[in-house]
Design a protein that fits this description.
By secondary structure, the protein is α+β, with helices and mostly antiparallel strands. The chain has nine helices and eight strands. The longest helix is centred in the middle third of the chain and has 16 residues. It is elongated.
Length: about 220
Amino acid sequence: MTQRFSLYQDLSVRENLEFVARLYGMRDPQRAARDMIVRLGLNGREDQLAGELSGGWKQRLALGACTLPNPRLLLLDEPTAGVDPKARRDFWNEIHALAAEGLTVLVSTHYMDEAERCHEIAYIAYGYLLAHGTVEEVIAKSALSTYTVTGDQLHTLQDELAGKPGVDMVAPFGTSLHVSGRDKSALDATIAPWRNNNGLHWQHGEPSLEDVFIELMTRSKDNFQ
């Protein structure tokens, strides 16, 4: 299933599913299409043109078309790009239901909250595998020590800390700043002067998956020639 919707825009939901069922030589294309429409909650939209569907409904239809022949492996290329949060959640609920039935699903995504939904994850940058394992394993292997900073003038603090000894990553997260490093002693020594600033509140905690991702990407080298 590609990121870009690739079914026929001028065919209805039902017609697209029946067409795909025929391509795979399924015995009863009409019944297969009806069953998939029910499974994916597309009831009432059977005769709606695919081109008139919202992004979330299009992706649901595309997923139905891909899983019609009951494959053993499903490849998803950034399937929820540009899809609203509720549609994303519904989509992932269906993915987990399929996985529970024995389907192996390989997903590429830039959303860390989606990566956290997977049983195992792998980080790839410029063709190189940087990390692999469960979410907990990848975070533990990063050996990152992370502080969350709240308070005033965080943008100035970000500029001042960037590139300092022990600071491998400094990035804004909403109204806070995440400061991380693999060498905790060096990191603590660098941030010590700022921890006495009454306008800043520092809290030590576990790194998030996004912290790990950003830190790994920061260390990666572009292989563009």
